[in-house]
Amino acid sequence: EEGLESWFRPRRRVRVLVQTPEEGRVLVQTPEGGRMQTVTLIPGDGIGPEISTAVMKIFEAAKAPIQWEEKNVTAIKGPGGKWIIPPEAKESMDKNKIGLKGPLKTPIAAGHPSMNLLLRKTFDLYANVRPCMSIEGYKTPYTDVDLVTIRENTEGEYSGIEHTIVDGVVQSIKLITEDASRKIAEYAFEYAKNNQRASVTAVHKANIMRMSDGLFLRKCRQVAENYRDIKFTEMYLDTVCLNMVQDPTQFDVLVMPNLYGDILSDLCAGLIGGLGVTPSGNIGANNVAIFESVHGTAPDIAGLDLANPTALLLSAVMMLRHMGMHDYSKKIETACFNTIRDKKVLTGDLGGKSKCSEFTAEICQRVRDMD
Amino acid sequence: MATVKPLPPPAKYGGRHTVTLIPGDGIGPELLNHVRELFRFSCVPVDFEVVNVCSSTEDDINNAITAIRRNGVALKGNIETLHTLPASHKSRNNLLRTSLDLYANVMHCKSLPGVQTRHNNIDIMIIRENTEGEYSSLEHESVTGVVECLKIITRTNSLRIAEYAFKLAREKGRKRVTAVHKANIMKLGDGLFLQCCREVAAGYPDIAFDAMIVDNTTMQLVSKPQQFDVMVMPNLYGNVVSNVCAGLVGGPGLVPGANYGHDYAVFETATRNTGKSIADRNIANPTAMLLASCMMLDHLKLYDYATMIRNAVLTTMNETRVRLNSPRRCSPHTFHN
């Protein structure tokens, strides 16, 4: 009978990371398992709506306990003249804490800053995480890539502080603070611990930028003391680039300031096949996490059912892992990788001729077959 | 543009040139010893004035700079910068480059026959601004726990490097110059650099010009590096891109680099590694340093010697079918030609 069976069904343990704002420490909390979780979905522009629909269909086929709340984040002028995202979107994110976002376009002459920048500032998304794993079936010159880049997302070279000192001389300021460096280092080590990664490498250029990158390194070293079972190494940015294109298997988790992170994360995305297959997650203060696809809006193929939903799907899988739903994430990820590996139904950018809906249907079928 | 100063007379006496040699740290000394042996064996009319630079005192680097000013040309190994020392201790290599105003770092990445790599048919020239940008070494801690580092971009230097890039492209018969930047984020700084490149490009209608953002550039480099021809960029992006390209054609042991200023030229390996972990074990690859010495001979107008040595190096590599990442004894290779 149903009642007796429930004794023998293994209880699913779900672990969720929670950061207490006042102490800044990361605790582990166990919520009740099996509850429906609401996630804010931002479809985005261009191919965004199609790929979001694809992801929703696949999640439905997998019977994942996720409820989607669609919100639009087109910037509006708030009180005081500052550009903000619509208040309903902000409330929804603050309530749900987890978001999935498609590509957003920034109109050039709109007068407001980039949408991604706005979201970053609104939710203080301090860490950008990109796991790069070679996809079997999507051949690139690099096989066996399995690394994660963790990039500090708020300061560094992207502080946006620039002045023209005299005509023809411009100075850009790179800002490195103790707090931000400590937060990103802590996140990197926690991520390594929770995902069974063996080592963390700090990427820097402290030989040239002695004080700024030196501060970043010092903080990383301090945090490393609390995680003795994870190996900590430091490497110059140029050495990392040099070794990355020769042998990417030697790297595990990489943590770095903003600019180096930007360049290296895109370099690693290039190793596994580009932005169309790379997932990405942004972690913010107050446990907010927004997972996104980092490719563009592809306006030329928007609405033609030709888009590849892999990037958004893998980001959604990352989201499930973050929420502790490891069974569902494994199921969907395996279905996706198997579809790509079998090469029968692939979208145009992966080398096939199928439509987005056919690719999605194939993955849904595999997911259902797994049950 | 500054008025052209007359070049100082070459350090040549009795038909023999004098070149400053800075061994540096790590694998530098052993590689430069190979160069000296080869030059002696081939009877190249070059005498080396060796200047050792120890990382701790200021005097050594000043002596080296004076020696280079005297001779005009130098061949150097990388000088280690211990980043545990305080910020007042500047990188010696950087000090050398800025004092002598070696504003252009030129690196030619070409797929070598006989070297197995993942990508083939790569032929990229990278011209990197060598004196300003992120390497200005201007940092301060305004409030405890908050450090500011200044990146300086000037119109003069940007115009100068762009002019150098286009002139070199024309000389070598290249068709396209790509400027690498991040002007969508650093609108004023990289925006100024890009604007200067565009202005110079207008004066060279025979050469195509385009621009690419640095993160996209690295992604394109690892998937399709054959699309690039000549690339020009500010200092830090130059560091990243040149290391990526060196990795693509086979590693740091194969690519030579040159730093050109208006009056002086300093030659070294392109990726400027100290190589401490492989020093004194006779396994470092001397190709990069040997090819750099050939570039130096070209600069001194000793073209025949340069061609002879270059052919010998490339033939050796081709014949012995170099497999990278396998330890080879370094010295027998040198005497193979």
Automatic annotation (TrEMBL), chain A:
Gene3D superfamilies: Isopropylmalate Dehydrogenase. PANTHER family: DECARBOXYLATING DEHYDROGENASES-ISOCITRATE, ISOPROPYLMALATE, TARTRATE (PTHR11835), ISOCITRATE DEHYDROGENASE [NAD] SUBUNIT ALPHA, MITOCHONDRIAL (PTHR11835:SF34). GO terms for biological process: isocitrate metabolic process; tricarboxylic acid cycle. It comes from Esox lucius. The keyword NADP does not apply. Heterooligomer of subunits alpha (IDH3A), beta (IDH3B), and gamma (IDH3G) in the apparent ratio of 2:1:1. The heterodimer containing one IDH3A and one IDH3B subunit and the heterodimer containing one IDH3A and one IDH3G subunit assemble into a heterotetramer (which contains two subunits of IDH3A, one of IDH3B and one of IDH3G) and further into the heterooctamer. It catalyses: D-threo-isocitrate + NAD(+) = 2-oxoglutarate + CO2 + NADH. Belongs to the isocitrate and isopropylmalate dehydrogenases family. This is Isocitrate dehydrogenase [NAD] subunit, mitochondrial.
Automatic annotation (TrEMBL), chain B:
It is found in: Mitochondrion. It comes from the Eukaryota. It holds the Pfam family Iso_dh. GO terms for molecular function: magnesium ion binding; NAD binding; oxidoreductase activity, acting on the CH-OH group of donors, NAD or NADP as acceptor. Heterooligomer of subunits alpha (IDH3A), beta (IDH3B), and gamma (IDH3G) in the apparent ratio of 2:1:1. The heterodimer containing one IDH3A and one IDH3B subunit and the heterodimer containing one IDH3A and one IDH3G subunit assemble into a heterotetramer (which contains two subunits of IDH3A, one of IDH3B and one of IDH3G) and further into the heterooctamer. GO terms for biological process: isocitrate metabolic process; tricarboxylic acid cycle. Keywords: Mitochondrion, Transit peptide, Tricarboxylic acid cycle. InterPro entries: IsoCit/isopropylmalate_DH_CS, Isocitrate_DH_NAD, IsoPropMal-DH-like_dom. One of its GO terms (cellular component) is mitochondrion. Residues 18-322 form the Isopropylmalate dehydrogenase-like domain. Belongs to the isocitrate and isopropylmalate dehydrogenases family. It comes from Esox lucius. Its main location: mitochondrion. This is Isocitrate dehydrogenase [NAD] subunit, mitochondrial.
